[in-house]
Amino acid sequence: MEDKSRRRFLQNAGLATLASVSPLAAEPQREKELFIHHVFFYLKDPNNAQDEAKLLEGLHMLAKVPTIQYVHIGKPANTNRSVIVKDYTFSWMCFFKNIIEEEIYQTHPIHLDFVKNYAHLWEKVHVFDSVGPGKVS
């Protein structure tokens, strides 16, 4: 099966499965809400350049999940205000058309491989998910 056809099949199979078991099937409005997934990674050894490079490699691989509309990988900015948190190593923010697309991402083989192959590098992660009206442009 051609790679694009296989990917489309997996996406459609995931959508069909979610529609049959998800409470979202009864809430079509939520399919229209932009979903933002923002993760802050804290390395076990934040001063280890090799670990940092390895995690960055993994994040670039993770960005290939097809349901992601937009991704941003960042490091703490050089800003100084009392409300700014700067103790993380990387910020990973990605946008999805809706929560269903994000749920497909969570179970996608690339995401599962990322967790399996890179989780040993981080001490903790903080995840902030948000939804709201909007369009990805």
UniProtKB/TrEMBL annotation:
Q: Write down the Pfam families for this protein, in alphabetical order.
A: Dabb
Q: Which InterPro entries match?
A: Dabb, Dimeric_a/b-barrel, TAT_signal
Which top-level group of life is the source organism from? Bacteria
**Domain named Stress-response A/B barrel: which ranges?**
35-130
| Family annotation (SUPFAM superfamilies) | Dimeric alpha+beta barrel (SSF54909)
Q: What is this protein called?
A: Dabb family protein
Q: Which organism is it from?
A: Dyadobacter sediminis
